[in-house]
């Protein structure tokens, strides 16, 4: 089920990176273990490395269907407000601890923003497209009737007192001789 670690391929699209503690999947004799990892969020993937100089990730997964949320239940110590979780139905969940509650919040917000952006890239099915086309037609009809009302109101305005002060509104280009001079 685990993705095979591979070198980062979309390094130009790094959205967020930094050190987080990642909870190991297998609990040890002493309970869950947290390991410091250099984590990288790209447009399509979440990758984690042993440190920021590592070339090969220890793990990675496509971020697309995951959900991110703060989860203070992950730890019982003073860092519990720094925890967040990445969940995806049918896939492994990932648990992290940031350096501060604000940093954890920032990771969650960045991931949620990315996921919202990714979901907007989906192409609607035919039924949805037809509904959207009907809505667009109604909106354009509303705009047309609104525009025609505005145009009829504009034509009845008194334009006599609207002389511009100062020079003509047209720009004189070099080499041209103005008519009025």
Please describe what this structure looks like.
By secondary structure, the chain is an alpha+beta fold. It has a domain of 101 residues: Roll (PH-domain like). Helices cover 27% and strands 23% of the residues. The protein is built from two helices and seven strands. A seven-stranded antiparallel β-sheet has the order 4-3-2-1-7-6-5, covered by helices on one side. A hairpin with a 2-residue loop joins strand 2 and strand 3. It is elongated, with a radius of gyration of 29 Å. About 6% of the residues have low confidence. This is SKAP1 protein. InterPro entries: PH-like_dom_sf, PH_domain, SKAP_fam. One of its GO terms (cellular component) is nucleus. Pfam families: PH (PF00169). Keywords: Cell membrane, Cytoplasm, Membrane, Nucleus, Phosphoprotein.
Give the helices and strands, then pairings.
Layout: E1 14-23, E2 34-42, E3 45-49, E4 59-62, E5 67-70, E6 83-87, E7 94-97, H1 101-119, H2 126-155
Antiparallel strand pairs: 1-2, 1-7, 2-3, 3-4, 5-6, 6-7
The level of helicity is 25-40%
The main pleated sheet reads as: 7 strands, antiparallel
| Share of β-strand residues | 15-25%
Indicate the CATH architecture of the domain at 14-25 and 33-121.
Answer: Roll
> In whole angstroms, how far apart are the ends?
83 Å
Beta strand count:
7
Q: Give the neighbour order of strands across the main sheet.
A: 4-3-2-1-7-6-5
Supply the CATH class of the domain at 14-25 and 33-121. Answer: Mainly Beta
Mean pLDDT across all amino acids: 77
Query: What general form does the structure show?
Result: elongated
Low-confidence segments, given as residue ranges, are 152-162
What radius of gyration results from the CA coordinates?
A: 29 Å
Structural class: alpha+beta
């Amino acid at each position: 089920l685990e993705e095979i670690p591979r070198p980062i391929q979309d390094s130009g699209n790094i959205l967020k990176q930094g050190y987080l503690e990642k909870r190991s999947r297998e609990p040890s004799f002493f309970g869950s273990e947290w390991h410091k990892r250099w984590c990288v969020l790209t447009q399509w993937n979440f990758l984690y490395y042993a440190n920021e100089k590592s070339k090969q990730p220890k793990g990675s997964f496509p971020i697309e269907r995951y959900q991110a949320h703060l989860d203070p239940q992950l730890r019982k110590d003073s860092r519990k407000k720094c925890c967040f979780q990445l969940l995806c139905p049918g896939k492994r969940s990932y648990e992290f601890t940031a350096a501060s509650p604000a940093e954890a919040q920032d990771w969650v917000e960045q991931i949620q923003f990315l996921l919202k952006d990714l979901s907007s890239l989906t192409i609607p099915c035919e039924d949805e497209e037809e509904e959207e086309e009907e809505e667009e037609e109604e909106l354009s009809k509303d705009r047309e009737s609104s525009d025609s009302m505005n145009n009829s109101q504009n034509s009845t305005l008194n334009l006599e007192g609207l002389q511009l002060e100062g020079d003509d509104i047209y720009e004189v280009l070099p080499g041209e001789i103005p008519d009025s001079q």
